[in-house]
Amino acid sequence: MGSESVLVGCCISCLLLPSIVLQSCGFFSPYWIYYKSDNSTTECFRGVLYNRGCSDDVKGLGATILGLQATSFAIIVSTTLACIGFICCNRNDDDDDDDVGCCAMLGGCMLCLYPVAGIIGFSGCMVVVADFGDHDKGWAFYVSLSASCYVIVQLMICCCLLCKKKKEDGGSSGESGGREVTQYESNPSSGGVVVGQVMEHHQIGISSTGELIVRKLQFTRIFHIS
Predict the structure, then answer these.
(1) Domain of 183?
(2) Which of 24, 51, 108, 127 has the fewest CB atoms within 10 Å, counting from its CB?
(3) Tally of domains within the chain
(4) 43 phi and psi angles, rounded to 5 deg
(5) 199 and 117 share a domain?
């Protein structure tokens, strides 16, 4: 179990790595909006956390954008750290089951919040477009927008795969087969014929854990024909 869990954790961490790199570069960079005022002769760039080349009277992008981008960044970082912790908890097969269970629960909760980070980050970029639509955008804006879109695309792909798997499981869970055998036996003492009819049915299904379940049902009917 340990090696398989570590492999899964490594794959998830690789999927999270581009989003955390892009989001970090955009969040800590001032090159979001190119701002040119009438009183300034130098280039002024406004960012989420701080500005560069701007006068003291020029403020940042605002508290709303700061809150949205900071929340998105915090969720992505927390999800990555939770996955790293999950890998560390499952590095050995003889680890305590309670520790593994806590790590798995924490990692699962953070993965559920991970798509929310993309939606929040995308909302923050849209607020920038709405508030600074007449200004030129810097590379940090597009990097953050790419990070949010990357998370949303991952969410869409995951939903498509889950729907496909559910459809395949639903199609295979109802498969069944069977055969019917009829036997005849004469009874001279009673002056009639005894007919025995045996029916066998096999039902094949898949459980929620992916195990194959085969059920054998047998029905017997006896008729006396005089």
Answers:
(1) 173-225
(2) 108
(3) 2
(4) -75, 135
(5) no
pTM value? Answer: 0.65
Residue 61 structure tokens: 């992008």
Same domain, 52 and 158: yes
Residue 100 has which token pair?
């593994």
Tokens standing for residue 182: 């009829």
Rounded to whole angstroms, how far apart are CA atoms 101 and 98? Answer: 5
Domain shared by 165 and 200, yes or no? no
Q: What is the pLDDT along the chain (226 residues), one digit of tens a residue?
A: 445 555 666 676 677 888 889 999 999 999 999 887 656 567 888 889 988 888 777 788 889 999 999 999 999 888 888 777 776 766 555 555 555 566 667 767 777 888 899 999 999 999 999 988 888 899 999 999 999 999 899 888 888 888 887 777 765 444 445 555 555 455 555 555 656 666 776 666 666 555 666 677 776 766 666 6
Alpha helix (H) residue ranges in 90-210: 97-131, 139-172
Q: Indicate whether 60 and 93 sit together in one domain.
A: yes
Q: Which of 130, 150, 171 is the last residue of a domain?
A: 171
